[in-house]
TrEMBL record:
PANTHER family per record: SUPPRESSION OF COPPER SENSITIVITY PROTEIN, THIOL:DISULFIDE INTERCHANGE PROTEIN DSBD
Name recorded for this polypeptide: Protein-disulfide reductase DsbD family protein
UniProt-listed InterPro entries: Cyt_c_assmbl_TM_dom, DsbD_gamma, DsbDN, Thioredoxin-like_sf, Thioredoxin_domain
Chief site of localization: membrane
Membrane topology: Multi-pass membrane protein
Length: 718
């Protein structure tokens, strides 16, 4: 008996240890209570659930959590003088509902001379989820959320993340103790109902009095955070005396309801408290909004979008498309198309016409895609160039086309229509792709009439908006199509010969220049890492094409290996670009004493209140028209002298990277993109004059004189 039991005990121990080892080696399952983290150098964000499993009819809490890097902050529902509140868009199973964000009490974060309302360090934003009573145990409910937030230090960077939680339905819900405790702690710190109602009354011309009838006598560091962003000057002090808080009325003051909401924070007995406060608004304040003071009329050139009809907008769009062909970003591609016509002009008139129609098809298709994105996303013209990876992709494409034009490589097989055909052949694929490329490289430019037409388009139903963009496309394609149907003009071209090879090679250099400019744009967006990512991408793309070309005449096995290696290299380069091409956290240095200040609506209001006229330049590094205006007009010495003599404050609104506040202002003035130039008189609350999209020194100086009511004489720049 003893002899047989020992081996059994030994075997049992061994089996138990083996099972334990396998358990330890097996990968741990992901907790249902928390999504995969979305990380950046500034924020680590997750979606946290208080339940590992949910029951039919149950209500429970989830929370968007953000761990912010030191020195960075995100924003409350009223961001203060600048910023953008965090938003969550839910995609939920049928019957599942998500409530609104339950906002913690914010902090006043001073970024001189402004004050933002937001959060630092660790942020937990709870949301209540309700499960339908007919949910069936055994099924899994997938909660999907897309969150967007703005995170700021000295600069602001928009970020976003997609989060997913898979929650099984069970007869009884399963609480995740750790997650529940974390969310409960956040909810316990939410502002409590005040238990009393405040009263908001006028106090002099520019002050407001907020009466707090039950404010504790020993309360200190009292601060009111209004939900309404047009109520008070956020950066102004808030002195309190005998339960009355004195606030500074906003220069854009507007309150349209008899009550207003906010959060009241204070310290009592060494503890911080936050109350959710509702205040009754004095009727006189509502009446003051209903009858505002007369403001100067807004002058717009070209006419404002509110004066446009659909027919006029279509005409503006067609004219803008025609003029867009003259912009420097488009001309090199059109020259290449003309060269393609010259190759076939002497051979077949029908083929030339076919080329023109295929070019038109490429233009229309690409415009349709861009217009659909602009309409669906509410984005602006050139919005895709706010993505550093796409800017780098265009830089790679321009570089490869340039090397192809000078004959550095040839692409065989099916790729020929996209590579060599795109640049110099006249095949069908090449014609369509040339049209698409012309549209892509045109997006950094804005022509006269375009701004008003596209601004009008964004205020119309989708069908009307799309028709305006298609009119722009037709105007853009008309010169090339007209040339293809003009046999008399084509017969003037010399017969094909060596001159075509020389001209084709010469066209490579505008492509290289465009690539250099795009790399500079990537550097402006993502710093030195953006430039490195662009150069690495160009190197890898060139090597991959060379690898395919050098093995073109080899055996099938070697060609397959080369193709696989090229795909792996391109994939690695793409990952490197995506990893490194993120907006830079380093502010751009402004060594020039004449460098413009940073725009914000609050800054404009502050300068106007001081009696200073304000010029605002809405621009972007990828906007060729903006850069041309800067060189031709805004950087000229006579303009700088005029600004100095008239006391004009110059502010710049940089839309190189996505900025919701700038996009909203562009939309307010009926524009779908940059450039936009505004000249505000030095009168508090006065509205701006809109300058033309193409500037001259005389245009800018005349606007400065109108804004100040003064004349100025400056020395002509040498």
């Amino acid at each position: 008996m003893i002899a047989t039991s020992l081996p059994r005990r030994t075997a049992s121990r061994l089996l138990h240890r083996a099972s334990l080892a396998l358990t330890l080696l097996a990968p741990a399952p992901l907790l249902a209570a928390e999504s995969v983290a979305v990380t950046s150098p500034r924020v680590t964000a997750t979606l946290l659930s208080s339940r590992d499993a949910v029951a039919p009819g149950e209500r429970f809490q989830v929370a968007l959590t953000q761990k912010l890097a030191p020195g960075w902050h995100s924003y409350w529902q009223n961001p203060g003088d600048s910023g953008e509140a965090t938003r969550i868009e839910w995609t939920l199973p049928e019957g599942v509902n998500a409530g609104a964000i339950q906002w913690p009490a914010p902090k006043a974060i001073r970024v001189e001379p402004l004050v933002n309302f937001g959060f630092e360090d660790n942020v937990v934003l709870p949301v209540e989820i309700s499960i339908p009573a007919n949910a069936k145990p055994g099924e899994t409910l997938t909660l999907s959320a897309k969150a967007t937030w703005l995170v700021c230090e000295k600069i602001c960077i928009p970020e976003e993340g997609a989060f997913t939680l898979d929650l099984p339905v069970a007869p009884a819900g399963t609480v995740d103790t750790a997650a529940q405790a974390r969310i409960d702690e956040a909810r316990a710190a939410l502002p409590k109902p005040a238990g009393f109602t405040g009263k908001l009354t006028a106090k002099g011309e520019d002050k407001l009095a907020l009466t707090l009838p039950s404010l504790p006598a020993g309360a200190s560091n009292v601060h009111f955070f209004p939900v309404l962003d047009t109520l008070i000057e956020h950066a102004a002090g808030q002195p309190v005396e005998n339960g009355v808080l004195t606030l500074t009325r906003s220069t854009a003051f507007k309150v349209g309801t008899p009550t207003t909401e906010g959060v009241l924070t204070f310290e009592e007995g060494g503890s911080k408290r936050a109350l959710a406060l509702s205040a009754e608004v004095e009727p006189a304040l509502l009446q003051a909004v209903a009858a505002p003071a007369q403001a100067p009329a807004r002058v717009t050139l070209p006419p404002p979008t509110e004066d446009l009809t659909l027919l006029l907008a279509l005409a503006f769009a067609f004219a803008g498309g025609l003029i867009l062909n003259l912009m420097p970003c488009v001309l090199p591609v059109l020259f290449i198309k003309a060269l393609g016509f010259a190759q076939v002009a002497q051979a077949s008139r029908s083929e030339v016409r076919q080329q023109g129609l295929l070019f038109l098809a490429g233009v229309l298709a690409t415009f349709f895609v861009l217009a659909s994105a602009v309409i669906a996303l509410g984005a602006g013209w050139g919005f895709q160039l706010q993505s550093p990876p796409l800017v780098i992709l265009l830089a790679v494409l321009m570089t490869l086309i340039g090397f192809n034009l000078i004959g550095a490589f040839e692409i065989g097989g099916r790729l020929q229509g996209v590579g060599d055909g795109l640049a110099s052949r006249s095949g069908p694929v090449g014609a369509v792709m040339t049209g698409a490329l012309a549209v892509v490289v045109a997006t950094p430019c804005t022509a006269p009439f375009m701004g008003a037409a596209m601004g009008y388009a964004l205020t119309q139903p989708p069908a009307a908006a799309l028709s305006i963009f298609m009119a722009l496309a037709l105007g853009f394609a008309t010169p090339v199509v007209a040339l293809s149907f003009a046999p008399g003009l084509l017969r003037l071209l010399p017969k094909p010969g060596r001159w075509m090879i020389v001209l084709k090679q010469a066209f490579a250099f505008p492509m290289f220049a465009t690539a250099i400019w795009l790399i500079w744009v990537a550097t402006m967006q993502a710093g030195a890492d953006g430039a490195l990512a662009a150069l690495v991408a160009i190197l890898i793309a060139g090597f991959a094409l060379w690898l395919i070309g050098v093995t073109r005449d080899s055996g099938r096995g070697l060609r397959a290996v080369a193709a696989a290696a090229a795909i792996l290299l391109v994939g690695a380069a793409s990952a490197f670009v995506i990893e490194n091409a993120t907006p830079s956290s380093q502010p751009t240095a402004q060594a020039d004493a004449d460098a413009p200040g940073v725009w914000s609506p609050a800054r404009v209001a502050e300068l106007q209140a001081q009696g200073k006229p304000v010029f605002v330049n809405f621009t972007a590094a990828w906007c060729i028209t903006c850069l041309a205006n800067d060189r031709v007009a805004l950087s000229r010495q006579e303009v700088k002298d005029a600004f100095a003599k008239l006391g004009v404050a110059y502010l710049k609104a940089d839309w190189t990277n996505r900025n919701a506040e700038i996009a909203a202002t562009l939309a307010e003035y009926g524009r779908a993109g940059v450039p936009l130039y505004l000249f505000y008189p030095g009168t508090k609350g006065a509205q701006a004059e809109v300058l033309p999209q193409l500037l001259t020194p005389e245009t800018v100086m005349s606007a400065a004189q109108r804004a100040t009511g003064k004349e100025v004489k400056t020395a002509t720049a040498r």
